[in-house]
Amino acid sequence: MKKTKASAGVPRAQIAAMPVRRLPNGRLEVMLVTSRTTRRWIVPKGWPIKGLTAPEAAAREAYEEAGVVGRIVKEPAGRYTYWKRKSDHFVLCEVTLFLLEVERQLPVWAEQGQRESRWFSPEDAADLVDEPELATAIRQATMALAA
């Protein structure tokens, strides 16, 4: 499979939500979901959605992929790049990451049967994702929340 850059070498823009919750003991947890094709651990993400702001689109992805709803932080928590696998090539994507402070987790949601979702400590979440820049963003965002 060959790697191809998006038009004129510019990465394609995506948005993502990093669902977080605080336990009664004060500890933070981060929710990760598995990707549909490779089953690797990722944050809910997708393409921008016409008519929605980037944070609103990120919240929608978290709702559809992980069944979580809450307060989306409007300022980005970080950015990362990765190679998205297509059928016969890869596309370079730059993802803008937004924190989603989870208020509730739904019993049923759109992609429930297509993905696994699980809560992790920030340290474990950062260790489980394949993208080094995403791991860094998880560590930095959760350290800022914990402070």
UniProtKB/TrEMBL annotation:
GO molecular function annotation: hydrolase activity
Organism: Bosea massiliensis
Listed cofactors: Mg(2+)
Alphabetical keyword list: Hydrolase, Magnesium, Metal-binding
Domain Nudix hydrolase: 10-142
SUPFAM superfamilies in alphabetical order: Nudix
Name this protein carries in UniProt: NUDIX hydrolase
Gene3D superfamilies, per database record: Nucleoside Triphosphate Pyrophosphohydrolase (3.90.79.10)
Coiled-coil segments on the chain, per record: none
